[in-house]
Amino acid sequence: MTLESKTPSGPIEERWLEHRDHLKLVAPNNRRKFTVIVVGSGLAGGSCAASLGEQGYNVKCLCFHDSPRRAHSIAAQGGINASKNYKNDGDSHWRLFYDTIKGGDFRSRESNTYRLAELSVNIIDQAVAQGVPFAREYGGLLDNRSFGGVQVSRTFYARGQTGQQLLLGAYQALARQIDRGTVEMLSRHEMLDLVVDDGRAVGIVTRHLVTGEVRSHAAHAVVLATGGYSNVYFLSTNAKGSNATAIWRAHRRGAYFANPCYTQIHPTCIPQSGDYQSKLTLMSESLRNDGRIWVPASENEERPPGRIPKDERDYYLERKYPSFGNLVPRDVASRNAKHVVDEGRGVGPLKNGVYLDFSDAIERLGRDAIEARYGNLFEMYERITGEDPYQVPMRIFPAPHYTMGGLWVDYNLMTTIPGLFAIGEANFSDHGANRLGASALMQGLADGYFIAPYTVANYLADHLGEAVDGRTEAFERTEEEIGERIAKLVAADGDRTVDHFHRELGRVVWEECGMSRDAEGLRKALEKIPALRDEYWAHAKVVGTGEEPNAELERAGRVADFFELAELMCIDALQRDESCGGHFREEHQTPEGEALRDDEEFSFVSAWEHTDDLANPRLHREPLEFELVEPSQRSYK
Amino acid sequence: MRLKLKIWRQEGPDTAGRLVDYTLDDVNEHASFLEMLDVLNEKLVLAGERPVTFEHDCREGICGSCGMMINGQAHGPHARTTACQLHLRHFRDGDTVQIEPWRASAFPVVRDLMVDRGAFDRIIQAGGYISVNTGAAPEANLIPVPRKDADDAFDAATCIGCGACVAQCPNGAAQLFTSAKTSHLALLPQGQPERWQRVVDMVDRMEKEGFGSCTNHRECQAVCPKGISIDWIARMNRDYLTAKVKGVERHHSQD
Fold first, then answer.
1. How far away is chain A from the Cα of B16, in angstroms, using its nearest Cα?
2. Separation of alpha carbons A509 and B215, rounded Å
3. Do B154 and A159 touch (CB under 8 A)?
4. A330: annotated active-site residue
């Protein structure tokens, strides 16, 4: 199968409109004849389900939570980008596009990224109309702040809870459609498999997380909006429930998986404090606007931070990158933090962090101004660490946060399985090898509000008059397979918990396929992961049955899928014998230690096809062509 | 540190529950409350026993999934903190900690500490939104919003829908939750067209869901992890009364 990206040509600013003008339509009176399943209710899924419902489609939306409002988009803190140029500082769609392409280290499609920039402004309009309480200036107009990797202020925010407020906007739009009966909300349902019949996605199989009922749902199209896979590392900033099962099962059914090794390690998280730790907590990147990052100039520094004179501190980002300073992109900030900690200059009881210091900003602007900007983040930090960041510098360290990789999709956000779409973090599309801050909310909502509703209709238009039927052989077979898998998982009666294995897996992936990678380590990981996976199936222990609420069983299935995905990540990382963005291969760096791309050999999207042998997936390459921007060595000096 | 736990165990909505004693001899004081339950659950699993069912997800205090009565207090002893953000350093070595699910007739127990909060979703579905279809929005800066109004709306909008307010209320009332949403939207110019209808429909739905009445105990405000003020309840009551005086009737279709 050849990959057809369906990327339009022509002047960049006209591509999406031109493309949209030629997508097929479904007439209003025919829309209710189509059933569309949307899996996930975060920013991408919630906005997509609501928008399709408004248009009159028959939508089924699923989430594994008790309420669609709890999806992990809710935890996004910092903000959402839009090229409104309200600050009159030279912003434009072009600049947002350019920053995103450059930030992604020239590993994303120009057409997709430009469309994202173009739609960013509509998202802000939509959110404001829904009542999202963005920060405002005294004149009553919207406020902006700046974020890493850019030189304009284009980030809209709602204190440190932008994700929550945007999600509530989408959730409320969804609630309105549930009330109107266009969306059927299936809470506490987990998708366990995709049903493919005659090469097309025709539905899914779910498990009800309270009763355990396994059930088929037939549809004309399926949209996956199930987020990313950072929890493969066990410790990440993702919610505990975030998982890759939906996209992984779809991959096993034929959807290609693109760039699995592109993972983002976020620079500003609270360092790990012990073995009991269940997750890592992000401190918004916006803190880098006013906080200064430093470590002691020398190793073996024992003094508390306040006692270390300024000239014995190393503000290493300001020193190495004078023009961007503390606001370099995430991958650069993360690698530099790792570097100074590896040198033995880490801070805190475990020497596993760097300082993020607000004392200068407090002196300059006053405590009240800092409190107004970051109050809730400071509170959260204090709750977790027991330290007051108004008095002592925060301690931060990078942690897995976002995955740029995901299901391969064409310009219409359709996967390689006709009728199966992937939106938001679940797809691979817009961020290349590194995502810029405040771009995830933008992409999720652009996909859900303004792209999928058009492109899903385009697919449906060809299937008018076709009935859906959940009792075909394909459904029965898939249901049976899921039944067998659940039976196998609940029968697991070994001597170690699922979490034990998940931690072990996470450790391997973090060590060998985390902030930096090399061929030797990746080869080691590719031996360890399958061995550990075999051990998992032989020695994990799950209690309880499949016919009741059973969190252990849920986790056991998700971890089994993470084991397979982890192997693909390492295969991809090994194959990509260059550094780019978040994928940093030790063998390929500039004399200054920056990521060194190899455009000759690797200017392509790696799209992996599942085969019967997990160790030998088939690689397909989608060449990346740059007509508008010249790929260059990123420089933030 | 060492903790003695008394945890409510209940198989299902129709079975009787009881408090069961557990002891953890060596938990780290820097662990979070839910991490302590993780430690307990791993021990239970290895012993072949059914782990404690509790809801959780983000563990950053924002998704609203977790919620439990800890020594009789919703989310435990630390003000403005969800159970997931509560750390064991707020307890003393040797303490006994009693953990129970939310207790409210509108939130039936599903299992152990997990309850059904679907009623909250249904209150929002009754009108907790602004009716604007995707694509129909005007330019974002067309309507200025006085900063004070925007800030107040934000304060009300920070509700995470955890249900602590209901659980702590002696009457099991949902006024704090409902008024936070009606007020968030009523404070914004975009929310005006549906303001009166919204408050009538949401209050009506709230009553139908079996929540109790508000008799000003103020417990809700005291335990709200987001510090949502009972002032919003007064505001909702005012709006409700105004709507009634205006003759607004419930138009909500689904009963």
1. 17
2. 55
3. yes
4. yes
Lookup: tokens for A103: 């930030």
The answer to whether B1 contacts chain A (CB < 8 Å) is no
Whether A15 contacts A8, CB under 8 Å: yes
Contact B137 A128 (CB under 8 A): yes
Q: Which helix (H) or strand (E) holds A221?
A: strand A221-224
Q: Which residues in chain B are closer than 8 Å to A74, comparing Cβ atoms?
A: 58, 62-63
Q: Which residues of A touch B85 (CB under 8 A)?
A: 380, 383-384
pTM of the predicted model over 0.90: yes
Mean pLDDT of chain A: 96
The CATH classification number of A265-400 equals 3.90.700.10
Residue % of chain A over a pLDDT of 90 = 92
Please report which helix (H) or strand (E) contains residue A114, including its range.
Answer: helix A110-130
Average of per-residue pLDDT across A340-352: 94
Domains (ranges, CATH) in chain B? 3-110 (3.10.20.30), 117-245 (1.10.1060.10)
Say how far apart CA A553 and CA A485 lie, in whole Å.
11
d(CA A113, CA A429): 8
Chain A: closest CA distance from residue B241 (Å): 23
CB contact under 8 A, B140 and A128: yes
Of A111, A97, A74, A96, nearest to A155 by C-alpha is A96
pLDDT higher than 70, residue B252: no
Mean pLDDT of the region A514-523: 96
The span from the CA of A447 to the CA of A459, in Å, is 16
CATH class of A473-611: mainly alpha
Bridge partners of A433, per DSSP, are none
Nearest CA in chain B to A269: B60
Alpha carbons B115 and B255: distance in angstroms, whole number: 22
- Surface of B (221-250) touching A: CB under 8 A: none
Contact between chains at B58 and A74 (C-beta distance less than 8 A): yes
Helix (H) or strand (E) holding A399: strand A394-403
The interface predicted TM-score of the complex, written ipTM, equals 0.98
Q: At residue A284, does pLDDT exceed 90? A: no
Name which of B45, B141, B185 is nearest A541 (Cβ-Cβ). Answer: B45
Report residue A464: phi and psi, to 5°: -60, 135
Q: What distance in Å separates the CA atoms of residue A333 and residue A326, rounded to the nearest whole number?
A: 8
Q: Which has the closest alpha carbon to B229: B162, B173, B155, B144?
A: B155
Domain(s) of CATH 3.90.700.10: residues in chain A: 265-400
DSSP B180-222: HHHHHHHTSGGGSTTHHHHHHHHHHHHHHTT-B---S--HHHH
Q: Do B128 and A175 touch (CB under 8 A)?
A: yes
Q: How many CB contacts within 8 angstroms connect chain A with chain B?
A: 225
**Distance between CA A429 and CA A107 in Å, rounded?**
10
Candidate list A288, A330, A576, A597, residue with the active-site label: A330
pLDDT tens digits along A485-494: 999 999 999 9
Judge: A141–B62 Cβ closer than 8 Å, yes or no.
Answer: no
CB count within 10 Å of CB B94 equals: 9
**Which residues of chain B lie closer than 8 angstroms to A171, CB-CB?**
124
Cβ contact (<8 Å) for B147 and A210?
Answer: no
In DSSP terms, B23 is beta-bridged to B4
Q: Tell me: pLDDT of A300 over 90.
A: no
- pLDDT single digits (tens) A128-145: 999 999 999 999 999 998
Average pLDDT for residues A625-634, to the nearest whole number? 91
